[in-house]
Amino acid sequence: MREVFHHSLEDVQLRLVEIAELVTVAIDKATNAFGSGDIALAEEVIADDSVIDDKAVALDELAIEILARQQPVARDLRIVVTALRVSASLERMGDIAEHIAQLTRMRFPERAIPKGLKSTFRKMGELDVDVARQLTELLRTEDLDLAGEIRNADDAIDELHVSVFEKVLSDSWQGEAGATVDATLASRYHERFADHAVSVAKKVVYLATGTWARDEEEDTVSA
Amino acid sequence: MREVFHHSLEDVQLRLVEIAELVTVAIDKATNAFGSGDIALAEEVIADDSVIDDKAVALDELAIEILARQQPVARDLRIVVTALRVSASLERMGDIAEHIAQLTRMRFPERAIPKGLKSTFRKMGELDVDVARQLTELLRTEDLDLAGEIRNADDAIDELHVSVFEKVLSDSWQGEAGATVDATLASRYHERFADHAVSVAKKVVYLATGTWARDEEEDTVSA
Questions:
Q1: What pTM value is reported for the model?
Q2: Is A162 on the interface with B (CB under 8 A)?
Q3: How far is B181 from chain A (nearest CA, A)?
Q4: Which chain B residues are closer than 8 Å to A79 by Cβ?
Q5: Beta-carbon separation of B68 and A68 below 8 A
Q6: Do B81 and A84 make contact, defined as CB atoms within 8 angstroms?
Q7: If 0-12 CB within 10 Å is exposed, 13-18 middle and 19+ buried, where does residue A193 land?
Q8: What is the ipTM for the molecules in this complex?
């Protein structure tokens, strides 16, 4: 019985890493589709989101079954509780990637990315993919240095997010209302990825150390 | 020991209801402050959000302690797992109320609510408060009819959310970029309250029935 139990716990962690990998792919494709107006790539992200959702539900079911049957304590309990929390955040990151893909599709054959903001969104997208990769590694290795890197990347993304609003609200902004709406939503989506990553990283720190970092405000006020 | 245990479980539910009540007050104050430009009311929401955050953290700690010490099964386990999930959503609803209050503060002494959208946002705000009240009652009573009412209100809020974008993207829209940004963000925030409420309601249905409703997409694509 013990051995079966430990297999299950290992399975929990492997599944979290697998979901994080799928989320990384979704963010990579969605931000690239948004930048290039690639409708086929956007459609892939939209079609694949249900895979992430299903895997998150399956992981939750496994976690609850472990709680019910194995009644884990100490670190084993922390693994299971963390998995329940982290899977919700990863699932949400997948949804946000889907939103960016939907924005891309809605504007097709135009590009959703407003003029004058292309390089800003490219940088945000690249940082978001970096963050998702770091998060996957953090879940795989529990190397807590990665939590600090994720926080730094989040700060950089927050600065870019603020710069989008500075641009949109400046006298030089020529965009029509549609471009302003797109910039506002897209920037918020790009920023939320990193917020979720910071939140997950804190939960992994809890897993590794047993100390509950209070879930402070990651979310930057937008405008 | 049994009696102590049941006290704890009852305590979990009472604490969830208490947090939901605080969130309802925050949504009520924030949407009213947004509609009227009442800076003092907005400041109250911002100051009080940490109370919600602290109570959510304390509830999580209690839930984890119960898992560790009491190793609940069956319905008792479902109460604890649901509490962990619901507290995260309630905490997030409090954050969103704070965001609306921050928008109000940022535009003061102007009103954040863009011209031509006043009655739309008033209706959204009223529906959001209704939803938060229904959610509180659902947590208190487990009356599952309330879950259906919450879903209906969410549909109505989604329609209003779509109408904001129709307005902003119409030829008659005279707002400058700042007003467009405010309308976009505020509408998204108002809509997210109800999404979270629907998500929590599903979790309460799980608690009552033991059947896991798949967490489908509540989130409306914005534009």
A1: 0.91
A2: no
A3: 6
A4: none
A5: no
A6: yes
A7: buried
A8: 0.88
Q: Which residues of A touch B178 (CB under 8 A)?
A: 169, 223
**Smallest CA–CA distance from A196 into chain B, residue:** B92
Residue B211 CB partners (closer than 8 Å, separation 6+): B205
Q: Please give the backbone phi and psi of residue B32, each rounded to the nearest 5 degrees, phi first.
A: -70, -40
- A63 and A80 Cβ atoms separated by less than 8 Å: yes
The Cα–Cα gap between B33 and B46 comes to 11
- Any idea which residue has 């102590």 for tokens? B4
What is the per-residue pLDDT across B107-147, written as a single tens digit (0 to 9) for each?
888 777 888 899 999 999 999 999 999 999 999 999 999 99
Mean pLDDT of chain A: 91
Residue A218 carries which side chain, given as an amino acid letter? E
Provide the token pair at A151.
Answer: 């926080």
pLDDT in tens, A1-46: 556 667 788 999 999 999 999 999 999 999 999 999 999 999 999 9
Mutate to test the interface with B, among A80, A117, A181, A185 (most CBs of B within 10 A): A181
Which residue from A17, A42, A205, A201 is spatially nearest to A111, judged by alpha carbons?
A: A42
Domains and CATH numbers, chain B: 2-209 (1.20.58.220)
Tell me the percentage of chain B whose pLDDT exceeds 70: 91
